[in-house]
Design goal:
Blueprint: H1 2-30, H2 35-56, H3 68-90, H4 95-102, H5 105-116, H6 123-140, H7 151-174, H8 180-209, H9 214-242, H10 244-251, H11 254-266, H12 272-288
Helix pairs in contact: 1-4, 1-9, 1-11, 2-3, 2-8, 2-9, 3-7, 3-8, 4-11, 5-7, 6-12, 9-10
Length: 302
């Protein structure tokens, strides 16, 4: 039992580590390539590794004809709208602010669940929502209470949050028929086709004009291998043994990981107010996840 728990929490630790790093890696790639190029290349690489691992370990299930359109709708919200919001947002805000805003997805999913599935909100959930929103405000402002983050960036990140919340509502029924690994693999494959025209219309000329650089491709490979493939498999393993609620509670540490490595690698600076804000957000998120319905499903794609 003890050895199994060590394996479970080690898997969750590395999933959180890789997803926390993903915002830093994205920033590094965006220093060279445009957002659509980053999304397109990341999805292509992610699909390759997901189907490779999925076929090797027999994780890929065939989607029934009557469910194919539902998968297309799911793919529209995530990765299409989600990645547009996240990556364009990252061109305007720091990786830490982006991570904190994205970390509120379970919070807003909780609110959506209240309206769409009549999931009951406890006092702890409501307190958690209030705390999280307060913490986000503390993260995106300076000490003198002026906005630290670009409003366009915040808007794009909130678009990503909206897409993920809509996705969590739509995907819930599909998870009862197919494993989560198959859903992610197929939605990313469809995402490649959705982004193909955008890439060739807006980014292709700039992409071929840019000289190959490992400074961009190394973090891009890290995003595809570690954030979009290995972290997902580790997190799925954690959900299997810990349940959705406890797994998502642990994933709330992602902004801390992002903040730490943004400071070390990207040289981002934080005020005392911002640091307290990150801790307040995490506290609120943990409270918001207490006593949740274990059937709720939230799949975040960092």
């Amino acid at each position: 039992m003890k050895n199994r728990n060590i394996k479970i929490y080690t898997a969750m630790f590395f999933a959180v580590l890789f997803w926390g790093f993903s915002f830093v890696w994205s920033k590094q790639v965006l220093a060279v390539y445009k957002p659509i190029t980053l999304i397109y290349l990341r999805l292509i690489l992610s699909v390759f590794f997901l189907f490779l691992f999925g076929l090797l370990f027999h994780k890929i299930q065939k989607i029934k004809k009557e469910d194919r359109f539902k998968i297309v709708i799911i793919a529209f919200f995530e990765p299409f709208v989600y990645f547009l919001g996240e990556n364009f947002g990252l061109t305007h805000v720091s990786s830490t602010v982006a991570s904190v805003l994205i970390s509120t997805i379970p919070l807003f999913s909780l609110i959506a669940a209240y309206f769409f599935t009549k999931e009951r909100l406890t006092l702890a959930n409501i307190l958690g929502i209030i705390l999280s929103i307060t913490g986000v405000i503390m993260v995106i402002v300076k000490d003198e209470f002026r906005f630290k983050a670009d409003l366009y960036g915040i808007g794009f990140m909130l678009l990503a949050v909206f897409a993920a919340v809509a996705y969590s509502v739509v995907v819930l029924k599909i998870t009862k028929k197919y494993n989560v690994y198959s859903i992610i693999a197929y939605q990313n494959l469809i995402g490649v086709f959705m982004f193909t025209p955008l890439f060739f219309i807006f980014d292709y000329k700039d992409f071929i004009a840019i000289r190959f650089s490992w400074e961009a491709w190394f973090p891009l490979l890290e995003l595809a291998v570690f954030a979009s493939t290995i972290a997902f498999m580790l997190f799925t393993f954690g959900i299997k043994h810990l349940g959705v609620t406890r797994a998502n509670t642990i994933s709330n540490l992602i902004p801390v990981v992002t903040a730490l490595f943004s400071f070390i690698i990207l040289g981002e600076n934080f005020s005392l107010l911002n640091i307290i804000g990150i801790l307040v957000v995490i506290t609120g998120l943990i409270l918001s996840q207490m006593h949740r319905n274990k059937k709720s499903v939230i799949i975040n794609e960092y």
